[in-house]
Specification:
The complex is a heterodimer.
Chain A: E1 4-13, E2 16-26, E3 29-34, H1 41-48, E4 56-61, H2 69-76, E5 79-82, H3 94-104, H4 110-123, H5 139-150, E6 157-161, H6 169-182, E7 187-192, H7 195-201, E8 204-209, E9 212-217, H8 219-224, E10 230-233, E11 240-245, E12 251-255, E13 262-263, H9 268-276, H10 278-283
Parallel strand pairs in A: 3-7, 3-8, 5-6, 6-7
Antiparallel strand pairs in A: 1-2, 1-4, 8-9, 10-12, 10-13, 11-12
Chain B: H1 9-13, H2 19-31, H3 33-42, H4 45-60, H5 66-73, H6 78-85, H7 88-108, H8 114-124, H9 126-133, H10 144-147, H11 154-178, H12 191-204, H13 210-232, H14 241-260, H15 262-265
Classes of the chains: A alpha/beta, B mainly alpha.
Chain lengths: 284, 270
């Protein structure tokens, strides 16, 4: 079973430390990276996708080290990658764009390459718009084209940087269906801002903050961090770290509850907010 | 119906009949159910499937761009043609070489001015370097982030694209230069310096952005040529044998440096 492993990864941009001794291991299934903007998620994913070198530490997939030129090439042949901003050729059709990436992925034989392009476009449900120009596609459709190119050649490692941005709820559902189906046989690492994605998809969740791993475990364990710390009240002004008004007019609070508080079952979002909100440290 | 096309049907199925016989069988099949049945029995289902796949493939494939068609006629495989077409900057390099070649062809036809010939040679030498800069980097490929993680990336991709476009650009400039052989070998004296500038651009691009590199290289080259021409009093002197020998040395050294530092091209941080 192929395994992705990072050990003490460090990356600096001038005076800013983007990754600070990050270590994690992921195997078959979906590993979700959660974290605020600037937490280092994209930097980590770029290193895993072999487009950025680390300043320190090591990363490997199935024993292949991206720092070594020969092993990097072997790793790229087993990799699918959707960057945060995939970019596209406005004059290309969806078919031509994926065909172009297929050429970069060394699919040389024209007929087989075209068959493969049709296969991946079908996987993401875009067969009908294969001949539409990229500039005429909606953001969600472009995102699906980007996902299609990442599936060329049946990769063993799929690295997805915020793949659900721009997708409407139905498209997000289809994306989850597809990724969960694929994840039975490969390692998927994705970053997201959406805790619902993590709850719905991930076997493992890693929370990054200021370049450091703040949490590494199951989504249930992340939600468990807020066990006994989430309650409902009619009062907006409770001594909580985080609180917001819900649709029924009551307030959901996360922090240290009063003794008689109406306790709620915590979600991944509760655990995540409690973990990252600095005020919770004071409230605890 | 008094006759049947049985003897012609195998050749009809194989599309080996001439046009007149094919039209005759076509017309006959419209009226003869027995022959239609016979030709259907002759037909190999796998060949029908293959034909259908060909049709589907033709429908799926976007028509090649003019540049892809040109490269195809020159024998460049379709995959390579697509790579070149997917790099908008390469069209710029090709257009630049055509402008220099044709523009100066018209300009030099009626002049013996060594200053104008020197200007042509100096500018023609710039084309290969511009082609290198246009061959890679985020500015050259909108899908650069995706491409950077593909097996065909980094130095390999730069070389594939650069060689393809250099062949086109240098060929266009050479064709333009052939019209000026009356000016002597200086008409092609840009070739080695041009390749030296291209190799230097490639090597410098392992430190900085490709367009910054080419700007530095072109600036240094044109300043050097202008200075040498003005100081020496002979505008064609900078393209003499000593420059050609120096160009060969620079090509070797810069190419070696680019290969040694090629891992930097493999990552985004250039």
């Amino acid at each position: 079973m192929p395994t992705l492993a990072c050990s003490e990864l460090t990356k600096r941009y001038r005076s800013t430390t983007a990754l600070d001794h990050v270590s994690l291991t992921a195997s078959t299934g979906v590993c979700g990276l959660l974290g605020p903007n600037g937490a280092g998620k994209t930097t980590l994913l770029r290193i895993l996708a072999t487009t950025l070198s680390a300043d320190g530490g090591s990363a490997s997939f199935d024993g292949l080290d991206p720092a070594d030129a020969g092993q990097r090439l072997a790793l790229r042949r087993r990799l699918g990658y959707v960057p945060q901003d995939p970019g596209y050729h406005p004059g290309f059709t969806a078919f031509a764009y994926v065909d172009y990436i297929a050429i970069l992925k060394e699919h040389v034989d024209r007929r087989r390459r075209h068959d493969e392009v049709r296969r991946v476009l079908d996987l993401v449900g875009l067969t009908d718009i294969a001949q539409r120009k990229m500039r005429r596609l909606s953001g969600g459709m472009r995102q699906r084209v980007a996902l299609a190119q990442s599936l060329l050649g049946d990769p063993d490692l799929l690295v997805l940087d915020e793949p659900t941005v721009g997708l409407d709820p139905e498209q997000r559902l289809r994306f989850r269906e597809l990724v969960s189906r694929l994840a039975a046989d490969l390692v998927v690492v994705l970053s997201t801002h959406l805790t619902e994605d993590v709850e719905a998809l991930c076997d493992q969740v890693v929370v990054l903050d200021e370049g450091q791993v703040r949490f590494d475990g199951t989504p249930q364990a992340l939600a468990g961090l807020a066990e006994g710390r989430v309650w409902r009240s009619d009062q907006p002004s409770e001594p909580s770290a985080v609180s917001w008004r819900m649709g029924d007019g009551s307030h959901r609070h996360i922090g240290t509850p009063r003794a008689e508080a109406d306790m709620l079952t915590p979600t991944v979002e509760d655990g995540y907010l409690l973990l990252l909100d600095k005020r919770s440290e004071n409230a605890a | 119906m008094t006759w049947h096309a049985n003897d012609l049907l195998p050749a009809y199925r194989d599309r080996s009949l001439d046009a007149i016989a094919t039209a005759s069988v076509d017309a006959h099949l419209v009226a003869c159910a027995q022959c239609r049945s016979a030709v259907a029995e002759l037909d190999d289902p796998s060949s029908t499937d293959a034909l259908w796949l060909e049709i589907v493939d033709d429908i799926d494939c976007t028509a090649p761009t003019p540049l892809e068609r040109l490269l195809g006629r020159l024998g460049v495989p379709d995959a390579l043609g697509r790579l070149v077409a997917a790099t908008p900057g390469l069209v710029l390099a090709t257009a630049l070489s055509a402008v220099i070649s044709v523009g100066f062809g018209l300009f030099l036809a009626d002049t013996d001015s060594s200053r104008m010939v020197a200007l042509f040679v100096a500018l023609a030498a710039v084309v290969p370097a511009v082609s290198v800069a246009a061959s890679f980097g985020a500015a050259a490929d909108p899908a650069f982030d995706v491409a950077a993680a593909a097996p065909l990336s980094g130095l390999r991709l730069v070389l594939v694209r650069t060689v393809a476009v250099e062949v086109v650009a240098v060929t266009i400039c050479l064709i333009g230069a052939l019209g000026h052989l009356d000016h002597g070998p200086v008409a092609v004296a840009w070739l080695l310096p041009g390749l030296a500038l291209a190799a230097t651009t490639l090597a410098l691009s392992t430190w900085t952005e490709p367009w910054t590199s080419v700007g530095l290289v072109i600036g240094a080259w044109l300043s050097g040529v202008a200075l040498a021409g003005r100081l020496g009093g002979d505008w064609l002197a900078p393209f003499g044998p000593s420059t050609q020998v120096a160009a060969v040395v620079v090509i070797f050294l810069a190419s070696t440096l680019a290969v040694v530092r090629s891992p930097r091209l493999d990552h985004r941080e250039i």
